[in-house]
């Protein structure tokens, strides 16, 4: 099972490497083959040089001896230069491949992050998997390729070295192998345990990253200073990092102990091999040049074997860490388009119908919505009110098909939402959530993002800005629509919360959608601005279906119907006047707010 998983992960890693930079992968393979045979040539030339010089010392250096020596010296120089050139090309190739692979990995991470359902973003396991994928994936595939290339190169070089050493004595290659294998066996066992240990740190690392974000970024700066939280958060951060550091030091200590065992065995092997070679030389079976050649061959062979086994362990280690990356890529969205999706009407005729709709989040057994039955007519403007946690925003997520109901059905013009393509539904909906995004982009880009399928027309953007009441704010900015908002980048202009909300509202008005949903659209606006927005709102949504969620009940009296949610249930429905006559939950909420305005 482990071997199968290893092979599958390596195949996927190599596939990723190849598709990231095919030409440079070919270059790497070519360099591998060439460098694999260089050591044998260098050893042979060095032997010939030493033997020639030894002969010259004994018999005298005549012109022929000098000429031969110079030839061997030139050959050694050429191969050394070739080796240096290959090393330089290897470094260049690895740099280029690393950048290409990193870009490819981030592209895959982004595509998968966009593809997965919203519910994954509300799951701790998802964030742990994403964290490990982001930590490991940008460099692990390149390490797999590098390890494989090194395994191939070391194997070729080692094979030649073993053949050469066998000519000295059959025991020498055996000593070489036996010296390395014990340490390698321990390393393989240790690597699997180390992976599990490192994976167990994910939650603590994420908590530490979160605390670092709290201390170092602008959204939290005011509260941290006013409540003097900086030192406390830093203390918590240090506690987490100290614990992680201690565990890493413990792992490193174990690794050093294993390396000591391996290196000690290797040193003993060198001594044995040197003794055998010296004995052969005393017996006259080996020349001085041969002694130097065999000694260097053994040392290089030991290095090649160590590299071979070390990179084999590296392949195993990298495959373990790549499991997290592939586990993330293998996440499958639950909300998918049907094989043959029905076309969504360009103009809705019947509207939206909810039948016996109940919902609970995957990580919770609590029902957020319970047996909702509701008909929203095409072109109708409704409001949804209720206490915090009543299920208002969750209902909106279901209408946008960011989730599917746990029970019941939601339909548009009599067709279940699951029979439409999710993208077709969402293309016909424009939403402003209460936790809207403050994009650190230009004003024009901030508003245009509401409808990226349309060209960024200045006229359309100004129309949306005027509809949201954002045009006076934009006109006062230094570069108007071209002004970058926020303070993350140079020449950025920060806005007030109310001004940001108007920009977000303009973004929602950019899309010519069949359904417009505004979740607390004026929570940060002053009363006059709020009244102006709602006065324009009825004109903007004429002929379209609209849903407004608001806690300010005085602003929603103009809607056609008001839905009242309580503990996930639809408890009241009707116009403002009718609900006030019923003197139920809505009337109590409205009167509670109204009494604060009475003198």
UniProtKB/TrEMBL annotation:
<feature type="domain" description="ABC transmembrane type-1">
    <location>
        <begin position="26"/>
        <end position="317"/>
    </location>
</feature>
<dbReference type="Pfam" id="PF00005">
    <property type="entry name" value="ABC_tran"/>
</dbReference>
<keyword id="KW-1133">Transmembrane helix</keyword>
<dbReference type="InterPro" id="IPR036640">
    <property type="entry name" value="ABC1_TM_sf"/>
</dbReference>
<feature type="transmembrane region" description="Helical">
    <location>
        <begin position="24"/>
        <end position="45"/>
    </location>
</feature>
<keyword id="KW-0812">Transmembrane</keyword>
<dbReference type="GO" id="GO:0015421">
    <property type="term" value="F:ABC-type oligopeptide transporter activity"/>
</dbReference>
<dbReference type="InterPro" id="IPR003439">
    <property type="entry name" value="ABC_transporter-like_ATP-bd"/>
</dbReference>
<keyword id="KW-0472">Membrane</keyword>
<keyword id="KW-1003">Cell membrane</keyword>
<dbReference type="GO" id="GO:0005886">
    <property type="term" value="C:plasma membrane"/>
</dbReference>
<dbReference type="InterPro" id="IPR011527">
    <property type="entry name" value="ABC1_TM_dom"/>
</dbReference>
<dbReference type="InterPro" id="IPR027417">
    <property type="entry name" value="P-loop_NTPase"/>
</dbReference>
<keyword id="KW-0813">Transport</keyword>
<feature type="domain" description="ABC transporter">
    <location>
        <begin position="352"/>
        <end position="592"/>
    </location>
</feature>
<dbReference type="GO" id="GO:0005524">
    <property type="term" value="F:ATP binding"/>
</dbReference>
<dbReference type="InterPro" id="IPR003593">
    <property type="entry name" value="AAA+_ATPase"/>
</dbReference>
<keyword id="KW-0547">Nucleotide-binding</keyword>
<keyword id="KW-0067">ATP-binding</keyword>
<protein>
    <submittedName>
        <fullName>ABC transporter ATP-binding protein</fullName>
    </submittedName>
</protein>
<dbReference type="GO" id="GO:0016887">
    <property type="term" value="F:ATP hydrolysis activity"/>
</dbReference>
<dbReference type="InterPro" id="IPR039421">
    <property type="entry name" value="Type_1_exporter"/>
</dbReference>
């Amino acid at each position: 099972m482990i071997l199968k998983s290893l092979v599958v992960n390596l195949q996927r890693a190599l596939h990723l490497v190849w598709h990231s930079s095919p030409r440079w992968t070919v270059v790497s393979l070519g360099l591998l083959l060439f460098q694999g045979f260089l050591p044998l040539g260098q050893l042979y030339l060095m032997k010939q040089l030493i033997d020639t010089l030894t002969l010259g010392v004994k018999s005298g250096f005549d012109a022929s001896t000098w000429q031969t020596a110079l030839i061997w010296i030139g050959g050694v120089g050429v191969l050394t230069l070739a080796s240096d050139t290959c090393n330089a090309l290897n470094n260049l190739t690895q740099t280029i491949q690393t950048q290409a692979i990193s870009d490819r990995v981030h592209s895959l991470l982004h595509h998968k992050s966009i593809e997965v359902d919203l519910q994954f973003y509300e799951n701790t396991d998802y964030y742990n998997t994403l964290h490990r994928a982001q930590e490991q994936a940008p460099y692990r595939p390149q390490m797999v390729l590098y390890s494989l290339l090194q395994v191939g190169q070391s194997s070729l070089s080692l094979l030649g070295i073993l053949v050469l050493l066998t000519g000295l004595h059959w025991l020498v290659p055996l000593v070489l192998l036996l010296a390395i294998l014990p340490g390698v066996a321990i390393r393989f066992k240790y690597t699997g345990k180390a992976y599990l240990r490192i994976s167990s740190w994910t939650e603590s690392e994420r908590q530490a990253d979160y605390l670092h974000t709290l201390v170092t970024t602008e959204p939290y700066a005011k509260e941290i200073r006013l409540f003097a939280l900086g030192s406390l958060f830093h203390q918590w951060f240090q506690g987490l990092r100290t614990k992680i550091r201690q565990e890493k030091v413990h792992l490193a200590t174990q690794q050093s102990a294993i390396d000591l065992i391996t290196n000690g065995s290797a040193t003993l092997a060198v001594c044995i091999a040197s003794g055998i070679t010296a004995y052969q030389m005393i017996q006259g079976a080996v020349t001085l040049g041969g002694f130097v050649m065999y000694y260097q061959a053994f040392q290089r062979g030991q290095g090649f074997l160590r590299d071979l086994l070390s990179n084999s362990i590296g392949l195993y280690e990298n495959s373990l860490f790549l499991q997290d990356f592939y586990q993330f890529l293998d996440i499958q969205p639950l909300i998918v388009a049907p094989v043959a999706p029905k076309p969504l009407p360009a103009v809705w005729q019947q509207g939206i119908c909810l039948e016996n709709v109940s919902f609970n989040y995957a990580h919770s057994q609590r029902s957020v919505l319970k047996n909702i039955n509701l008909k929203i007519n095409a072109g109708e403007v409704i409001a949804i009110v209720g206490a915090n946690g009543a299920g208002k925003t969750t209902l909106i997520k279901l209408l946008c098909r960011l989730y599917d109901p746990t029970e019941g059905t939601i339909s548009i013009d009599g067709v279940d939402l699951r029979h439409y393509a999710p993208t077709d539904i969402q293309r016909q909906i424009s939403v402003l959530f209460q936790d809207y995004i403050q994009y650190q982009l230009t004003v024009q880009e901030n508003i245009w993002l509401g409808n990226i399928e349309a060209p960024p027309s200045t006229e359309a953007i100004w129309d949306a800005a005027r509809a949201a009441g954002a045009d006076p704010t934009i006109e006062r900015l230094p570069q108007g629509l071209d002004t970058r908002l926020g303070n993350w980048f140079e020449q950025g202009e920060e806005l007030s919360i109310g001004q940001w909300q108007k920009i977000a509202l303009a973004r929602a008005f950019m899309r010519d959608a069949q359904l417009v949903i505004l979740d607390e659209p004026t929570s940060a606006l002053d009363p006059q601005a709020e009244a102006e927005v709602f006065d324009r709102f009825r004109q903007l949504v004429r002929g379209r279906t609209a849903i407004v969620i608001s806690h300010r009940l005085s602003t929603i009296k103009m809607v056609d119907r008001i839905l009242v949610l309580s503990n996930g249930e639809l408890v009241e429905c009707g116009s403002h006047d009718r609900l006030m006559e019923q003197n139920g939950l809505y009337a109590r909420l409205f009167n509670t707010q109204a009494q604060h305005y009475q003198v």
